[in-house]
Amino acid sequence: MALALQTYATVKDANAALKAAGTRYLGGGTLVVRAANEGDVSVSGLIRSTEPSLSTIAVAGDKVRIGASVTMAAIAHHPDLDALAKAARAVGGPAIRNMATVGGNLFAPAPYGDFAVALLALDATISTDDGDTPIETFLANRDGSRAIVTSVSFTLPKADSFRFLKVSRVKPKGVSVLSIASVLERSPDGTVSSARIALGCMADRPMRAIAAEKALTGRSLTKDSIAPALAAARDGTSPITDPIASAWYRNEVLPVHLGRLLLA
Amino acid sequence: MAKVPVQFTLNGSDKAEFVDSGTTLLHALRDKIGDTSPKGGCHQGTCGACSVIIDGELRLSCLTLAETCNGATISTTSGLSESGVLHPLQRAFLDTFATQCGFCTPGMIMAAKVLLDHTPNPSRDEVVEALSGNICRCTGYEPIIQAVLTAARSNSQNAA
Amino acid sequence: MQLRKSYFADVRKDDLHEIGQPRPRSDSPGHVTGKTAFFADRNFPGMLHLKMVRSPHHHARIRSIDTSEAEKHPGVVKILTAKDVPHNVYTILILIQIGPEDETVLADGKVRWKGEAVVAVLAETERAAQEAAAKVKVDYEVLPAVFDMEEALKPGAPLVNEYHGQNYYLYDSGECRKVRFGDVEAGFAGADHVLEQSYQSSPIEHAPTETTGCVVAPEGNDRFTCYTNTQAMFFTLDNTSIILQMPGSKLHFVGGTVGGGFGGKVDVIVEPIAILGAKLTGRPVCFIYSREEEMQISSPRAAEKVVIKDGVMSDGRIVARKVTGYTDAGAYSRHSPYGAQKGAGHYPGPYTIPNVWIDTYCVYTNRTPSSAMRGFGVTIGDFALEVQMDKLARLIGMDPLEFRFINAYRDGDMKAHRQPTEGAALIECMQEASRAANWPVAEKFMAMSSYVKGA
């Protein structure tokens, strides 16, 4: 079957069309058109929706809602989303960032999907017409997901509490060796009162470093006191092996880079 | 096979074609319209050789479906020079020996043009960032960076 | 750019007019305007797309091939298997009498590396060709495979290539290329220090931005025009002539514009099968590697292993050097027997050593066939040799650059393969490097010359 594109004005109609066999949703095209170009003949129907809400960014106080079709470039340039600009710029080169969408990034297999790592640290909520899902649950079930993602929502991190690091061999644009995002709440005495740490490339999809988060709580951000968190960073990881790095290498360097992120 | 109409402005001229649904803009430009200046190097968004400018933004034509470009304004490197006079970027690429095999050149020039359109006097770092999605396997990056900086300087001199 | 005319000033007239002067590149105006015509910029009405069905196994016997479903697929025009290729078993260096023919255009009875071409599908669209290729059924009996050169050379290793009969290329000199000069064992016996080290490298892909490919158009008179990005135009034409059993006068090759080659486009891979497709269908045909094919299927630089044993005196003279080189050809020869032979000629490096022993092996394994790439046969060897030189200098506590001055070959020195040295400019290059890198060496080395006797 030849490839064919169907465009719908509403997400509702696009969702209905996606029930047909052999269909996939087309966001920015950086994943699905690539797959078709590379000879993936399992997809014969591309479905997209031009519903305007998919392309809007809404910021109300510290609450943010980003439509699923919003591009990385739009996030990087948005005046209220400074905190996320670094993570958005970590995706691809300039042309890719003009195309790649927030919704698509949730489905990007490792070593891609750096922005989803940031969203995981932010504890984002993923919305579809069927309802809202915490990002962790969404990522775990994404392979079977059929409902079109309409938006991602999260609370803007307090000043300086969000950190993001992408490690790549080629700069400024390179595929990830790994990426790390963290949201660290601090007590008045400077110790960490709560931590959320997300890792990219340390499994087939973004994952949380839960043992490291626990080991960090109550600690100050000094070399000695983060040591237990670094020691626990590899807990539960199963990194990918690809042309960029082996699983062994990724595990070896993870504590080093997590240490740099925490001490930055 | 279902054909769909596509209609857009390419380098200032109106173009209308029927293409197979699902055809990439790269194929439509090269095989249907006959503008072969965008090149297919990887068809996966990695090399940047297919870069074109769509409505003022740098895009990869290999990952863009032609039928999503209806009504758009598209620029490619083949449309840069006017009545035989090279665009300052083309002139600079020529003068600074910024081409080797030439396969990445049209994409590089598109990426550079978008940069200079928005940032007429870029820093070296800004040039590097702007070209970061374009691979030159002959590894002639330094002359390419110099070409973009040279073109920016000649633009600002002309404007002065 | 600077020209240091002080070097060789007494032996060469200062009459350079072009060198050192910037001149516009003749191809650049085409490049910057997007007008340069690469092969894929040719488009013909009714052009067919060729996609290859490839082996998923490293080593397997083909029990059967069933193309019946694929033939029925909408858009499919022709499907080619080994029996359609007039002279299916070939080797590119046969043009210079380097046999035996050892490689199949399309696999016949057996596959010897993962990715080997088995069935060619020609269809109206790329998509139809991809879909039909997925419907070709090949029944394989998987065989034991060998990926390591030393394993391949052991008795009882799986035989990779029956056309050779053993897992190494049989030179007229035997199982390897050999250089024998002086008495290497006597040299080791008389040396103050002996150092043996081994070095190895992995295959390296050229990764040109333009992938390998060609576009073929029948001219309507049994003649075919082939637009190609080969780096080896007449090599390709002559081999195609043999493979298709077609006089060269029927083949019109148009090329010379290559979107990056680096040696990766000297094999004769896409043109014969694409021309055959055009001949059997009467239609234009394009066969262009996908990026994945370019990375996985096109020949890489060979993996190499180099074992170097040196005898060195405390005063810095290397008195004996024994080198054993292994070149991993992968499953087929392509240019690798030549690469391994080049290695033998290249060792012991640009140094004058009185006692030299060199063996270089071209080994077959079930890996992707390797071939040419920028200085193949010598580049990895140079890496090994120069790392070894640094280690030797450290061993005797000598400055590494001065150590090289002591051993550098100079005009008139006899090389190990018995060619007298001429035109050696190594001394002068190192003198300039010493200045440029601000790495001073003793005055006596700065006073040396490659060509002035006694200096």
In short:
The complex is a heterotrimer of chains A (264), B (160) and C (455). By secondary structure, chain A is α+β, with helices and mostly antiparallel strands.
Protein architecture, described:
Chain B: Pfam families: Fer2, Fer2_2. Chain B: GO terms for molecular function: 2 iron, 2 sulfur cluster binding; metal ion binding; oxidoreductase activity. Chain B: Keywords: 2Fe-2S, Iron, Iron-sulfur, Metal-binding, Oxidoreductase. Chain B: This is Carbon-monoxide dehydrogenase small subunit. The complex is a heterotrimer of chains A (264), B (160) and C (455). Chain A is of the alpha+beta class and 264 residues long. Chain A folds into three domains: 46 residues, no CATH class; 104 residues, Uridine Diphospho-n-acetylenolpyruvylglucosamine Reductase, domain 3; 102 residues, Enolase-like, domain 1, CATH 3.30.390. Helices cover 30% and strands 25% of the residues of chain A. Chain A has eleven helices and twelve strands. Chain A has a five-stranded antiparallel beta sheet. Chain B folds into two domains: 77 residues, Beta-grasp domain (Ubiquitin-like (UB roll), Roll), CATH 3.10.20.30; 72 residues, DNA polymerase, domain 1. Helix content of chain B is 36%, strand content 17%. Chain B contains five helices and five strands. Chain B has a five-stranded mixed beta sheet with strand order 2-1-5-3-4, with helices on both faces. The longest helix of chain B has 19 residues. Chain B is globular. Chain C folds into two domains: 186 residues, Alpha-Beta Complex (Aldehyde Oxidoreductase, domain 3); 151 residues, 2-Layer Sandwich (Aldehyde Oxidoreductase, domain 4). Chain C is 24% helix and 22% strand. The radius of gyration of chain C is 26 Å and the shape is globular. The chains are: A alpha+beta (264), B alpha+beta (160), C alpha+beta (455).
